[in-house]
Design a protein that fits this description.
Layout (H helix, E strand, L loop, with lengths): L1 H17 L10 E8 L2 E8 L28 E4 L3 E3 L2 E3 L2 E8 L5 E6 L16 E7 L2 E15 L5 E18 L2 H14 L3 H14 L3 H15 L4 H13 L3 H18 L2 H13 L3
Antiparallel strand pairs: 1-2, 2-3, 3-6, 4-5, 4-10, 6-7, 7-8, 9-10
Helix pairs in contact: 3-4, 4-5, 5-6, 6-7
Length: 280
């Protein structure tokens, strides 16, 4: 009995040792996702409050790099290459740092996002982009730091940093027109060789309408020519499945010649094996 009581006491003590108090974060986490045109933009950050403090030039010193929020890095990601204030930035995720001053703010996109606050050792080689924008004084006070997207258009938007009595607009341009025009052109021109090939391959694998699969793979080969030995190989397999052995042999020979020219040993062997199987 004494042993049992000792174990229970140990478990109770252990429970107290590992218990953690749950309380709200002083600077709550926030996440915002915005589609600009066809580009996905996401920001994760923490939102410190003014709390009757003097913010810019004091709590956030002028002419020093600021984490642009609180706690871990504010991280912004783009699904496409974009332009920030007219300068190009590759798609990906970045830590968003700023260097405030009374007259202008530097906006810094830093490739290392795994920092708590600013990096212990700043590395200029990790600065993907740096632009300068002008802060604007606003009449009402924003208690908690916030990042919002406004002035949304098909090809651009404004990302706004707001806190205390300042508003800092940052223009983002996205490749909506390029993407849309490419999509329109592809759609109006009809399916490409790859589309026909993928459809035919699926029908072959799933045992669906092989005559339709043959029509599609024939179109794929017509579009790509004899250089596409993998398409010719697929055509021969569909023809063989349909019992069109003579046509399958002809397609396999074309695929073999093309694969030999391309130096693809795998397709050379597969075609030779099939030709032997089909009696050629």
């Amino acid at each position: 009995m004494k042993t049992v009581l000792s174990i229970c006491a140990a478990l109770v003590i252990s429970g107290f040792t590992y218990a953690q108090v749950k309380s709200p974060q002083p600077s709550p986490k926030s996440k915002i996702e915005q589609v600009i045109g066809l580009t996905n933009v996401q920001v994760e950050y923490s939102r410190p409050g003014v709390k009757e403090r003097d913010i810019f030039g004091n709590l956030v010193p002028f002419d020093k790099v600021w984490r642009t929020g609180a706690n871990k890095n504010t991280v912004i990601s783009f699904s496409d290459d974009v332009k920030i204030e007219g300068k190009e930035l590759k798609k990906g995720a970045y830590a968003l740092f700023t260097k405030p001053s009374a007259a202008a703010w530097e906006i810094i996109f830093y490739s290392d996002t795994d920092n708590w606050g600013t990096p212990k050792k700043w590395d200029d080689t990790k600065v993907a982009l740096k632009v300068t924008v002008k802060p604007i004084k606003i009449p009402s006070k924003i208690e908690n730091f916030m990042i919002v997207f406004d002035n949304l258009k098909n090809g651009s938007a404004e990302m706004d940093l707001l806190w205390d009595t300042l508003y800092v607009p940052i223009k983002i341009e996205v490749p909506t027109d390029v993407t849309t025009m490419a999509s329109i052109e592809k759609t109006l021109n009809g399916p490409g060789a790859g589309d026909y090939y993928s459809a035919a391959n699926y029908f072959l694998d799933e045992g669906k309408d092989l005559e339709k699969a043959l029509t599609w793979i024939t179109k794929a080969v017509e579009l790509r020519g004899d250089g596409a030995f993998w398409m010719l190989r697929k055509k021969s397999l569909i023809e063989a499945k349909l019992g069109k052995t003579k046509a399958a042999i002809a397609s396999a020979k074309r695929s073999l010649a093309s694969a030999e020219k391309a130096g693809n040993a795998d397709y050379v062997k597969m075609n030779k094996d099939s030709l032997k199987e089909w009696g050629s």
